[in-house]
Amino acid sequence: MSTEVAKPKFIEGFTIPDAYYELNYAIWTKGIEWQVEAPYNELTKALLNVTLHVRRPEIRPLRHPEAPTSEEYISLYAYSKILTPEKTTEETYTYGERLRKIDFMGNIIEYDQFEKAIEKLKKSPTTRRCVLVIARPEDLESAEPPCLREVHIWLEPPSHNKLQLTAFFRSWDAYAASNANLGALQLMQEEIARELGITTGSITVFASNAHIYETSFPFVQKWLEKKLETKEFYIGKIDED
């Protein structure tokens, strides 16, 4: 793999729907072929080492009209999979469970990272330590490791009255999941900001591998050919310098 393929890419969107379009467009036009490992073995188009910046993620709607999700689902996903520790018997994990519970040698320990982070930000607005960790070492041997690994929340200087959010995905399904992911991260950011009595800022996502699955190729191609974005959303840009 050449260093050019691994060169970081910066993508920016004004709103979440705009950023969703820009991410998918960049992958569709500049992505490389990436074969997923067994047992899935599916072909993807992938863009590596991507930084996606959403300048005004709070602007509604959160959903792009071509995304395979809904405003209702984004809210349900945020409040049932991220902002609550509960999970069903069929689920091996949820982000919310991992953010509030630690599995230590088979013993479940209650540890609410949201609560700890909010307390720390209140006491020390300049802290750089509020990283909410989802990843666990044993994920290396898991057949379904979490795609979202960690979320860093911090207060924007010099006034420290705006909450910023930075997330890291090891693997990110741009077409099927990124719109719901971004919307849920925004709702999470709003809940934390409400507890702090401040406003929300931007969202930045780092993705090692952002991709579109082959099963989604027909939908993405049909969508991008419509070029709806020129009328309905502010158009961001991809800067490869």
Question: How would you sum up this structure in a few lines?
Answer:
The chain is 33% helix and 28% strand. It has 241 residues and is of the alpha/beta class.
Can you offer a commentary on this structure?
It contains 8 helices and 11 strands. By secondary structure, it is of the alpha/beta class. The protein has helices spanning 3-6, 16-30, 71-82, 95-98, 113-123, 178-196, 217-226, 229-232; strands at 9-13, 32-35, 43-54, 101-104, 107-110, 131-133, 148-155, 162-169, 172-173, 199-213, 237-239. Helix content is 33%, strand content 28%. The protein is globular, with a radius of gyration of 18 Å. Strands 1, 2, 3, 6, 7, 8, 9, 10 and 11 form a 9-stranded mixed sheet that branches. Helix 3 (71-82) packs across helix 6. It has a single domain (3-230), classed as Thymidylate Synthase, Chain A (2-Layer Sandwich), CATH 3.30.572.
